[in-house]
# Entry
Amino acid sequence: MPGHPCCVDHVLGSSLFAEADIYCAPEVVEYLSSGADQIRDDALHHGADAAEIDRAIAVLGPPQQANYQSTYQADVNLGNRTATITHPGRGHTTSDLIVVVPGPDDDDSRLVVFTGDLVEESADPAIDADSDIAAWPATLDRVLAIGGPDALYVPGHGRVVDAGFIRSQRDWLKAFGPCR
Ligand SMILES: [Zn+2]
# Structure
């Protein structure tokens, strides 16, 4: 499978939020522009149902539409708090973004960090052609620096984890790297 800058297992889910602004890294917008055939092949490769893929692709439409924000960094006003989207570095892919959400009234002591597939709880981290094993541990250190020791971390797959879990996944990746 050729490398691609995003997880097709997550990207197609955005078709459920047709009215929403969609923030993604420029590489991802490029990938979505690469055509439905490539996306369809990748999704089939991941075991998705062909009819569901076609439905999602049809709803998703081309990324040129105005609701796509091509960016590595954004602040999103959610009313009583501001979520921050940022690119902590290369890891699972070249263009993973995380979302940092404070508590009500921007209470920084109650952060929730959505890590995407930089962190997986239900299995070992998914390493594929587009992953950067050498850079990944330092990227997780940046995620930890952003979230701090008390944040709740929501991984791409599996249950919510704490900073200790992220540290052990970082150490696992560090140990895995030289063995390749
Ligand atoms: Zn995933």
Summary: Residues 114 and 145 are 14 Å apart (CA to CA). The mean pLDDT is 88.
